[in-house]
Specification:
The complex is a heterodimer. In chain A, 38% of the residues lie in helices and 17% in strands. Chain A is built from 24 helices and 22 strands. In chain A, strand 21 and strand 22 form a beta hairpin. In chain A, helix 2 runs parallel beside helix 8, helix 13 packs antiparallel against helix 17 and helix 18 packs parallel to helix 24. By secondary structure, chain B is of the alpha+beta class. Chain B has two domains: 77 residues, Alpha-Beta Plaits; 74 residues, 2-Layer Sandwich (Alpha-Beta Plaits). Chain B is built from four helices and nine strands. In chain B, a hairpin with a 5-residue loop joins strand 2 and strand 3. Chain B starts with a strand and ends in a 6-residue tail after the last strand. The chains are: A alpha/beta, B alpha+beta. Chains A and B meet through loops of A and helix 1, helix 2 and strand 4 of B.
């Protein structure tokens, strides 16, 4: 018998691909280069098993893998070369890290004997990415390769998910070793807590039923742990009003009568008033970001806080928490529901308190609903409302960052999880378009839209070529105000309209640009053209770029000035 | 509230762990006062003793984030009451005929040793608490300290006393 077969000897490059197959990976986003040529050569043999999506810039690869991961719940995989290939991924990695998105990034590295030698295309990738990855590795011995990949996927996808990077020197990909993929991992320093502490949970249940003005404040953790059904059950069981962070949108149906919209800097009047008047707030998989809390001393000033989070370091970071619960949101909500199942009497005897409270919030909602004024120029909010209407609310929507992002959060009603992809934590302009490409690859049957600004779309516009190459029917809706709109808004409000370098005086003709790439370009300049443009875009099974020429100086309202209490809202 | 803290951190003995740990402090502008790292009985694990002064609340947050590092196995804060803290100093001090006997006497008081002698200097080795080392330095300073090297502090939890 052939000795090689018996011992299952393989080159490092083949070990990498075989490990990916063991992890169930069928899609990679990448860009080749010198240090990863062995891996690329091996990929050529696996064309029927692994789909490699060739992006046009490595940043696009990480954002696309991120969009793929957020839309599907699977781990996104990236493959790039050493040096500039690796450094180009950094913004995408930091974006995924801030929003807890599971990614495994493979970067090539110069051969081990050249590391530290200022070799061609050498960068200290592990050093550069250390603070923006959940963990990272430099593989210096082929013996460690398979185990490292196993650990990377485990770490990326468990606990609070996040990006894990593996830096692989070129000689490791050509050396040969026995392939034996480990069954499990042994990590002494890593064991996430999934189940909440029983005593803490009984306190939560007791105080929740005693509360007169309880409120659920949900974040991205609800979506990551797939806890939407449990959340809905809990809210409906005891009539709990729900407000969400940007990252939590879709975690609870936006059209549900118990939902009062996003809170924070551009939150709804009802949500911000509810937070400020509640007496008992359960924060679920949210992290009290400064864009949510405003002046932190005033945030939930009348309330006791419960904080459910899988990451202990998120709890008590910004706001004092009376009842901390470390655990996975889904597991914790299931435990709470189980405890409540024996308390139907208490639930009904205390219901009148909560119904009165719901009435209060509904009054706030009707006093100051989200609104905007129509005239003969296209309003950005109108475009987003129309996209919502014409997609029946069932599209996957990504955004860039700024006004386009906030208007989308306000005016597209997200009713199911994993349909809203946005860079919440890092706030990365240029995220939305490649993320939409990744989402479209993960969900080929879904409608996928990137709602963009004319500024941010130009940060990764090169990915149009990727969308065309793979014939992805991604739709880009550019809210084109010829401004960096959110910068302009702040300059209007806080800098006496001194529009310092926020005007995009030389935008390309986006229609012609789309055509040059081989995509379809459409434009609307009047309100009555908006609907037709969206309908036409939806009917075309190709990438479509829509240029909506909108009112130049429209602002996002409500708005809370940075550092002010969130009750201090500027309204329309 | 500003206060000196001693953290005892058990980590995996791997390349890059020190940078990961130190990075959490430096990213927040904390200066590490002293750090001691060495392997434990298990050669796969190392113990770091970090001494640092800073805001208690921020340090609590850093402690939680240390726990989040994959290579960190355990983090424990040691307090003066429940632990023994030691530091070693090597100090080269001017010595002439008039001061040699004084130096020997100081060495005895501080329970130290003379580890190197030259025509015009003595080198002392003294181990003790941070306070003890400080007072040694105060006493030797008038004689003229030529060079001084200190280890970081090491600390170990006291055994539980029987009631």
């Amino acid at each position: 018998m052939n000795n090689n077969v018996q011992k299952n000897l393989m080159a490092g490059s083949k070990i990498i691909i075989e490990s990916l197959i063991k992890e169930g990976v069928d899609t990679i986003f990448g860009y080749p280069g010198g240090a990863v040529l062995n891996i690329y050569d091996e990929l050529f043999n696996y064309k029927d098993k692994i789909r490699h999506v060739l992006v046009r810039h490595e940043q696009g690869a990480t954002h696309a893998a991120d969009g793929y991961a957020r839309a599907s719940g699977k781990v996104g995989v990236v493959l790039v070369t050493s040096g500039p290939g690796a450094t180009n991924t950094v913004t995408g990695i930091a974006t995924a890290y801030m929003d807890s998105v599971p990614l495994v990034i493979f970067t090539g590295q110069v051969p081990t004997n050249l590391i530290g030698n200022d070799a061609f295309q050498e960068a200290d990738t592990v050093g550069i990415t250390r603070p923006c990855t959940k963990h990272n590795y430099l593989v210096k011995d082929i013996k460690d390769l398979a185990r490292t990949i196993k650990e990377a996927f485990y770490i990326a996808s468990t606990g609070r998910p996040g990006p894990v990077l593996i830096d692989i020197p070129k000689d490791i990909t050509s050396s040969v070793y026995e392939f034996d993929y480990p069954e499990g991992v042994e990590l002494k320093g890593y064991s996430p807590t999934y189940f909440g502490h029983h005593m803490q949970l009984s306190k939560v249940v007791k105080e929740l039923l005693n509360a007169k003005r309880p409120l659920l404040y949900i974040g991205g953790g609800v979506i990551i742990s797939n806890a939407s059904p449990e959340l809905k059950e809990l809210a409906e069981l005891i009539d709990l009003p729900v407000t969400s962070t940007l990252m939590g949108l879709g975690g609870f149906p936006s059209e549900h009568p118990l939902f009062f919209g996003m809170l924070g800097m551009h939150g709804t009047y009802a949500a911000n008033m509810a937070i400020s008047n509640a007496d008992f707030i359960i924060a679920i998989g949210a992290r009290f970001d400064d864009r949510v809390t405003g002046k932190v001393e005033e945030f939930g000033r009348n309330a006791k806080f419960v904080h459910i989070d899988i990451d202990p370091s998120s709890i008590g970071k910004n706001v004092k928490i009376e009842i901390p619960v470390v655990g996975d949101v889904k597991a914790v909500l299931n435990s709470i529901l189980e405890m409540l199942s024996t308390k139907s009497e208490e639930i009904s005897s205390t219901r009148h308190n909560r119904l009165k409270w719901l009435e209060d919030i509904n009054i706030w909602k009707y006093e100051h609903p989200l609104s905007y004024k129509m005239n003969d120029i296209i309003k950005p909010q109108y475009v987003i409302e129309k996209i919502y209407e014409l997609t029946g609310g069932s599209a996957i929507i990504s955004t860039e960052v700024g006004q386009n992002q906030m208007w989308t959060a306000q005016f597209y009603k997200f009713n199911s999880p994993r349909t809203f992809l946005t860079s919440g934590g890092l706030g990365t302009m240029g995220y939305g378009f490649p993320a939409a490409i990744g989402a479209q690859i993960a969900c080929p049957e879904r409608m996928v839209f990137d709602i963009a600004g004319d500024g941010s779309i130009q940060m990764n516009i090169q990915e149009l070529a990727t969308a065309v190459q793979y014939n992805l029917p991604v739709k880009v809706a550019i809210i084109n105000n010829s401004f960096l709109g959110m910068i302009r808004q702040w300059q209007e409000l806080f800098y006496e309209k001194r529009y310092s370098f926020s005007q995009m005086n030389a935008n390309p003709d986006f229609v012609k640009l789309a055509e040059a790439y081989g995509a379809v370009g459409l434009r609307a300049t009047k309100p009555d053209e908006v609907e037709d443009v969206i309908k036409k875009a939806l009917s075309i099974k190709k990438p479509v770029m829509m240029d909506f020429v909108v009112a130049k100086e429209e602002s996002v309202y409500p708005m809370v000035a940075p550092g002010a209490p969130i009750t201090g809202m500027l309204l329309v | 509230m500003e206060k000196t803290h001693i953290l005892s951190i058990l980590v995996e003995n791997e390349a890059g762990v020190l940078t990961r740990v130190a990075g959490l402090f430096s990213a927040r502008g904390f200066n590490i006062d002293s750090i001691c790292v060495a392997k434990t009985l298990d050669k796969n694990e190392s113990k770091m003793i970090i001494s640092i002064s800073g805001d208690t609340q921020i340090l609590e947050q850093i402690t939680k984030q240390l726990n989040r590092l994959i290579n960190v196995i355990k983090v424990q804060e040691l307090t003066d009451e429940d632990s023994v803290v030691r530091q070693t100093v090597l100090v080269k001090v001017n010595a002439d005929e008039t001061t040699k006997s004084d130096i020997v006497r100081i060495k005895d008081i501080f329970n130290g040793r003379i580890i190197d002698v030259s025509r015009n200097s003595y080198t002392l080795e003294v181990t003790g608490s941070e306070k003890k080392i400080e007072s040694l330095i105060d006493i030797l300073r008038p004689l003229g300290i030529k060079d001084i090297v200190m280890t970081g502090i090491v600390a170990i939890q006291r055994a539980k006393k029987l009631n």
